[in-house]
Known about the structure:
Elements: H1 14-23, E1 25-29, E2 32-38, E3 46-50, H2 59-76, E4 85-91, H3 99-112
Parallel strand pairs: 3-4
Antiparallel strand pairs: 1-2, 2-4
Helix pairs in contact: 2-3
Amino acid sequence: MPATLSKEERLSGKSAIAALLSGGKWGHFGHFKYCVLKRDDESPNRILVSVPKKNFRRAVKRNLLKRRIREAYRTQKSLMQEKGRDVLFFYNSTQVSEYAAIRVEIASILSKI
């Protein structure tokens, strides 16, 4: 599996996001809440990253965290064994974490899923 994050691996569209939020299973680990929904097809896994404006008023910090989360997922996405899953990563802390800490938490979440 190549270590890239293509357009097909990003979750987009109102109906797909609404289906994930309404029918997905929620969990939390460390600084993250996550939601997972298993789809019927065998297409690639898709992710959505959310960092709330309520916790980080400056877009620079929100974008930094989103880049770190996407990079941690991109380098470790092979930990997810099954295909056809939609995943939402919701950063739920008021502190900016280092990349190493985010990477460890994402790895734990991916191995649980």
